[in-house]
Design brief:
The complex is a heterodimer.
Chain A (H helix, E strand, L loop, with lengths): L2 E4 L28 H14 L1 H13 L7 H21 L1 H13 L8 H15 L25
Chain B lengths: L31 H66 L24 E4 L4
Classes of the chains: A mainly alpha, B mainly alpha.
Chain lengths: ~150, ~130
């Protein structure tokens, strides 16, 4: 068996490593969602999984080795899956309307305010999660709550 | 010899009519001052609107950034799991390849510290493996 060291970015050989995860690592489902649903739910993931996310990022800051933060990473993924399941359970229609809109509008938030407002209201009533953009100017309404936006 | 009585040259009785020296052009439109003020006012309003739009665009950018920041841990965790799985497989492959070389340490860093570095090269098995 021979093998050549190759620079992965210069390699023209397609290589998909089929080796499964070692059994010592607990199994976790991957999130499996595409970019639009993730972007639609991003602020709720940030709010709902705040502790897990911050824990994970602090761990990564401690040591960048992928093996170091697997446990924290599993918690992050489980939390996000849990949230997506809850969103599908309570606000399926609104969620789907919003992420479909994002998908059709170059994933720009400002072009999907109407479905977003319905979605946010539903999540607020069902899960008590609020979209909040940190570091915005305090004396003005947040951009997604602006009454007459110039860009829409 | 007759003498002509001297007379001073005077305007005719009632004086000359005034000479028309101005061009006789009709008045055309508002004056320069009015035009300048109007243009300045329109421009000022325009710049005010530009300022508002800049402010709004800045907030939209912030919204987009935070949307992505909230997703970073999730995506990074998924990538880490995959990287870990591939690293383990690569080390196993390396151990298999180098099993006959005495004193070979599998996965040993070329640096004299333990800080993690992304592997710059990967060992890819030949195609039919």
């Amino acid at each position: 068996m021979s093998a050549a060291p190759r620079n992965p970015s210069l390699s023209d050989v397609e290589f998909i490593d089929p080796t499964p995860m070692p059994d010592s690592i607990p199994k976790v489902d991957e999130i499996g969602a595409t970019s639009a649903p993730l972007q639609s739910a991003a602020f709720f993931i940030g709010a709902y999984c705040k502790e897990y996310n911050e824990d994970f990022m602090l761990c990564k800051n401690e040591n960048n080795d992928p093996a170091h933060c697997l446990k924290e990473g599993r918690k992050v993924t489980r939390c996000a899956i849990d949230l997506l399941r809850k969103l599908r359970e309570h606000c399926d229609k609104e969620f789907e309307a919003h992420w479909t809109c994002l998908d059709l509008n170059n994933q720009e938030y400002h072009r999907c305010r109407a479905p977003e407002r319905k979605f946010n209201a539903c999540v607020m009533s069902a899960l008590k999660l609020e979209k909040y953009i940190p570091d915005s100017p305090a004396n003005k309404p947040q951009i997604h709550l602006k009454e007459k936006p110039l860009y829409y | 010899m007759t003498t002509i009585p001297q007379t001073q040259d005077l305007p005719r009785p009632g004086g000359f009519p005034s000479i028309r020296y101005k061009r006789n052009l009709p008045k055309r439109g508002p004056s320069g001052v009015v035009l300048l003020t109007a243009v300045a006012a329109i421009s000022a309003y325009g710049f005010y609107r530009v300022g508002l739009a800049n402010e709004e665009r800045r907030e939209l950018k912030r919204e987009k950034s935070w949307g992505r920041i909230h997703l970073v841990p999730l995506l990074q965790a998924e990538l880490d799991r995959d990287t870990y799985r591939r690293t383990v497989a690569a080390l196993k492959r390396e151990a298999e390849i180098m099993k006959d070389v005495p004193g070979w340490k599998v996965g040993e860093s070329v640096y004299h510290n333990t800080r993690y570095r992304m592997p710059t090269h990967i060992v890819v098995p030949e195609k039919d493996v």
